[in-house]
Structure formats: C-alpha cells, structure tokens
Write a structure and sequence with these properties.
Aminopeptidase
Length: about 425
C-alpha cells in the first residue's frame, strides 16, 4: 500500500487562488490519467457556480494542514485495521489531492492500479477533516476496493432499475466493510444532526420509496450524494444499502455477496423491502396479519426428539383430526399438520432427519395437500417456512407454492424470526 499526500504542493501552487491551467499540470504530475478523469466526471456540474466556490473555500492553509495531519495519523495506523478484511496487505494507492469536486472519496483505477482518491476540497466542505471522519472515509473507499478485488463491483447498468440496484449494492458492501474495519456496526460518517436516528425511525418508508422508484423506473439519485436529499436528508442510500447487505449476510458470506448477480440482488431487495417488524406489516391486509400471528406449535420436534411409544401415543391424542402421521418400522417418518383459519388453510410438515434428502418430503407433502383439499375444498393453502431454509422453499415450490410475503413472526420458542409465506 502506497500513500501520497499532496497538501504542501496544494498550498504552494494555489496560494493566490485556484488556477485551472496550474491545476491540470499539478494533477498530471500525480497521474497522466487524472486531469481528464476528473474533468469528465465533473462535466455535469456548473463549474463557476458549483465547483469553483468549493475550491476557493478549501484553499486555506490552516484547513489544509488540519486535513493533512489527520490523514497522516490514519494511514500510519491503517494496516492494523486492514487485517480484519484482507488476508494480505492490499496493493493499492491512497492519494490526498485537490480535485474538481469529484467526491470526498473516490475508489477508482489510476495507471492500472487500484486507487483511493481523497478530494481535500470536498472533505473540507463536508467537515470530514477530523481523525474519526477521515478514518471512516478512507475505510469506506477501501471497502469499495475490497469489493472490486473480491467480486463484481460493477454490474451491467443499462436500465434505471439496474443502476439503482447497483448503487445501493455498491454502497451497502462498502458500508459493511467500513463497519468491519472500524469495529463498530453503528458508525456512519454521514451521521450529523440526528441523521442516523431519522434513518432508523423511517426505515420502512425509505425501503418502500426506493422500491417504488425502481418499479416506476424513476431516478434514485436523491438517496445518494451530499448535493441531493431525500425528505431533507442526504446520503440516505448509504444507510439503506448497509441494511440491505446486512440482510443478505443472514444467508450469504460477504464474499458470496460480493459476487451475486443482478437477478439475485434484484429479487433479494424486493424480499428485503417486504420484511418488516412483526408489529408493522408492509402488507396491510388483515389476512396477512392473521397468518403472521399464528403460533405453529407441533407437539414434538421431529428433528430433536426420539419417538418412542409414549410420544407416539401422545401425538395420536393431540389434535388427532388435524395431523396426518406417516409411520414406518414403528418410527415416525413425517407428519402433516392441517390448520384452518378464516378463509385460509395452513399446512406444516415435519420430517425425521434420516428421511431428509430422499424426495420423501415432497411425496408426504403432496399427500397432505390432497387431504387438505378434500377437507376444505374452497380454501387457499398456505405454508410458512424460515427464510434460510432454501431446501424446504424449493420443495414447496416444486409442489406449486409461490412466495407471497416475507415478514417477521414468532417461532415456537417465542423468538422473532424471518419467515417466507407461500400460497398454493
């Protein structure tokens, strides 16, 4: 890892104010690619109104010295942090430079090498010049480079929806990496004036609005960038992206997440939006609230219990009309619970461990479906399965069930857990 601090050169070259020709020469000495790279990135801005005032305000010797001092403190202790994420020291450059308002942090490639560009003018403008914010900023951009080195940082983005998913995904992975590297899952360098509290309080609204814009093919730029805002708050997409990736980490490792294809990310984000707290259902239909409040408590757990004659007789006595029990060699192979409520019908299946993976679960389930239809011919059939249980979900899908909702419900141990609700 190589670090370059150009603060002394900035103070010398621009003592009398910003000069564009001088800046091009200065940037070209850092890398021949840098001047054109910055100019292309800044084309959408009004230079006189949006860029030049920020540059002039940053050309203050005291401010530059303060940024330089904290930059040196952070980079001199950086390797200890990087070991939490990288197996070996990454081959990257970290450059503190004067840009054209291209961003406080920019993970990119210069001269074929992964590089973090730190724009001193934006750092000063955003008040991210103290040690804490400087460290977080650098770690965040290193998170982007980790993603690039370990997965697919860039996805094909030829539609607004793809661009929206990609932006959220990129910033979410970088935020999680930042948390890992700094050792604090609750730290957001964007957190000023109650920003984090507001994001937490409005998380469901933020989720739904982001998905609505994706569905309507509308821009999500309001969620990203300090020059934009959603409901008066900038960078809300960083919070949402982080929560999305944390949701993915319940199922995948971080390296697996770094390599997920667009189709999987798109599907997972829709599921993530539908997942809400148990008392705040995204779907307001009373039927869904009912199903989420059910306590499915089979009398015995097939996976953790030996079925002797006593438990067998008890199972027969317990709601005997609602249970279909499949026995073999005096042991319980599986059971189907048929539970009716209002206009819906709920099925639950338990399969003994030695019978798993042999196709028997589907066979028993089909028998249960057939029996349920005979008993309740006019009711829809529902199943509820933990979201991590992909084997069970695929089994239900093969029997014709389709995913309808994702919500948090109580499991048999009275703990909140994420469930997928499927309907036939």
């Amino acid at each position: 890892m190589k670090t370059i601090n150009t603060c002394e050169k900035i103070k010398t070259l621009f003592r009398g104010g910003f000069d564009f020709a001088e800046w091009k020469k200065y940037a070209g000495e850092i890398s021949e690619e840098l001047p054109r790279k910055c100019e292309n990135d800044a084309k959408e801005y009004d230079f006189e109104k949006q860029v030049l005032p920020v540059l002039e305000a940053a050309l203050n010797a005291e401010k530059i010295d303060f940024v330089s001092q904290n930059f040196e403190i952070v980079v001199n202790t950086l390797n200890a942090n990087l070991k939490k994420l990288f197996d070996t020291e990454p081959d990257i450059n970290i450059i503190l430079y004067l840009g054209l308002c291209n961003g406080a942090g920019w993970a990119t490639t210069l001269d074929g090498k992964s590089t973090v560009l730190l724009g001193i003018e934006k750092i000063i403008e955003l008040d991210w010049d103290d040690e804490t914010n400087m460290r977080a900023l650098i770690l965040h951009e290193i998170g982007h480079l980790w993603h690039k080195l370990n997965g697919k940082l860039y996805l094909p983005d030829f539609t607004k929806r793809r661009k929206g998913i990609q932006h959220l995904y990129q910033e979410g992975v970088a935020m999680v990496c930042e948390h890992i590297l700094c050792g604090d899952d609750n730290f957001y360098h964007q957190n000023n004036d109650g920003w984090l509290d507001w994001c937490r309080e409005n998380e469901n609204e933020i989720k739904k609005e982001y998905l609505r814009r994706l569905d309507k093919r509308q821009s999500v730029q309001d969620f990203f960038g300090d020059w934009c805002s959603y409901n008066g708050h900038s960078d809300v997409g960083y919070y949402l992206g982080c929560k999305f990736v944390e949701h993915l980490m319940k199922t995948y490792t971080l390296k697996e997440i770094a390599n997920l294809p667009y189709r999987k990310l798109n599907k997972e984000f829709t599921r993530f939006v539908k997942l809400t707290e148990r008392t705040e259902y995204f779907m307001s239909e009373s039927a869904v609230k009912d199903i989420c409040s059910w306590r499915y408590l089979p009398p015995y757990n097939v996976y953790n219990c030996e079925y002797d004659e006593t438990s067998r007789s008890l199972l027969k006595e317990e709601n005997r009309k609602n249970y279909l029990c499949f026995w073999g060699n005096n042991t319980l192979n599986a059971y189907i619970n048929i539970y009716s409520k209002n206009d819906m019908l709920f099925l639950g299946i338990g399969l003994s461990p030695e019978k798993c993976g042999k196709g028997l679960g589907k066979a028993y389930l089909l028998q249960g479906i057939s029996e349920a239809k005979k008993r309740y011919p006019n009711k829809k059939i529902w199943v509820q399965v933990r979201s991590w249980n992909q084997r069970a979900i695929k089994c239900y899908e093969s029997c014709g069930f389709k995913e309808q909702y994702i919500a948090t419900a109580r499991d048999r141990y009275d703990k909140d857990e994420e469930f997928v609700f499927m309907c036939l």
